[in-house]
Design brief:
Distance between the termini: 39 Å
Largest sheet: 5 strands, antiparallel
Order of helices and strands: EEEEEEEEHEEEEEEEEEEEEEEEEEEEEE
Strand content: 35-45%
């Protein structure tokens, strides 16, 4: 996840805020475009370090991941007392470690499979599969099945997102292993799983199959790798309507970045640690041949910023005016921004003044494509349209 020492991030467009934040249940934004005014609406509070929100296909409930090792459910507007899954006893939590995400299988409604990403008591990454119990509001902890274990040399830069792509494959974002400056050179090492985007077929093989389209399936690197050269891809997302993959890669001391590429392109090299953002990392000159430049970047310590928080592209039904906008934030500044991406370029950029929400740790979306924001206070919010005079 991030460089922060105390918080993780979440997966929908859900926002969580800190206890000291003075935020009412509904915060209205001033108009920032000539089409729509946005605000946020509280969905849940009193959560223990929420870091991700998601939902299975066609399921009206929200599932919220708490960093210490629980998954909670919001059903019919109420946060249920009983956790959907509690694996606190196996999770090593604190700083950038903990239970970091859950991905529901595309056929969850029939097979009941969910895949969690967490760091264990030793700090190593564990990807495990669980199965829902007869009680649909509870997963069975006895069904735990190890899919992949990855050693972590340091406590930070764990990545942490499991996400099924439109192709049905399970994608896993892995940071470079931590410390500073990628001391082990993992980002550009094709034989290391750290600093990569992985792609697994969890429907075949034992415990998984290397998909034939993966760039190193026949050799030259680890077969699980889909893309290389990432520093800490805390959150990434797929735009299923345009076929684009968005990766928000947390920077070091210089640049935060969002990378946008067609999701069908295998073997993309995002540059770390040869480059950070749009520039060479360790010197004024470097070989940039074959390296993917970011679609958008900004200085890491500019205007109180520190770590980019990636979101998703909006394709819900309730706010058609923002369809196609990719939303993102920064952990320290916690503004809410968005842009559209067309013909290889960032366009139609906006900043949405939704009020003080505290440190935004993640975004997520529900089964209907509505967006949520999660902040560090234990609150989750939904992005909503609010009354207001359109800007001229």
């Amino acid at each position: 996840m991030l460089r922060m020492s105390s918080v993780l991030l979440s997966v929908g467009f859900i926002v969580c805020a800190s206890p000291k934040d003075d935020t009412s249940s509904t915060a209205q934004a001033a108009p920032t475009s000539n089409k729509v005014t946005l605000g946020v609406e509280e969905v849940a509070s009193g959560l223990d370090q929420p870091v991700y929100v998601t939902a299975p296909a066609a399921d009206p409930r929200l599932f919220i991941v708490e960093q210490p090792g629980r998954i909670r459910i919001v059903e019919n507007g109420k946060l249920l007392d009983k956790p959907f899954l509690d694996i606190v006893s196996k999770v090593g939590s604190g700083g950038e470690r903990g239970l970091l995400s859950v991905a529901f299988h595309p056929q969850y409604g029939t097979n009941g499979f969910l895949f969690v990403n967490y760091t264990d008591k030793k700090g190593d990454t564990q990807i495990e599969r669980y199965t829902v119990s007869v009680d649909k509001s509870a997963a069975d902890p006895r069904t735990a099945k190890l899919i992949l274990a990855i050693d972590q040399p340091y406590s930070n830069h764990n990545g942490g997102l499991n996400l099924f792509g439109p192709d049905g494959m399970l994608y896993i974002g892995m940071g470079d292993g931590g410390s500073q400056g990628d001391p082990h050179g993992n980002g550009q090492n094709r034989n290391a799983l750290l600093g990569k985007l992985l792609r697994l077929n969890v429907d075949r093989g034992e415990p998984y199959l290397i998909p034939s389209a993966n760039p190193y399936e026949k050799g030259g690197g680890r077969g699980e790798i889909w893309a290389i050269g990432l520093r800490n891809p805390w959150r990434f997302s797929f735009d299923r309507f345009t076929g684009l993959l968005y990766i928000a890669d947390v920077g070091g001391d210089r640049f935060e970045e969002v990378d946008v590429v067609p999701m069908s392109v295998a073997g993309v090299n995002y540059g770390w640690s040869t480059m950070e953002g749009p520039r060479c990392n360790r010197s004024s000159g470097c070989d940039q041949t074959g390296l993917q430049k970011p679609a958008l970047s900004y200085a890491t310590h500019q205007n109180s910023t520190c770590a980019i928080i990636g979101g998703s592209v909006y394709h819900g039904r309730k706010i058609p005016e923002i369809t196609g906008q990719y939303f993102y934030s920064d952990y320290c500044n916690s503004w809410l921004k968005s842009f559209a991406f067309a013909n290889g370029n960032v366009t139609d950029e906006h900043e949405w003044p939704v009020g003080r929400l505290g440190s935004i740790s993640s975004f997520g979306e529900d089964s209907q494509g509505e967006l949520y924001i999660c902040t560090s206070s234990g609150r989750v919010y939904r992005i909503v349209k609010t009354p207001g005079n359109p800007a001229r």
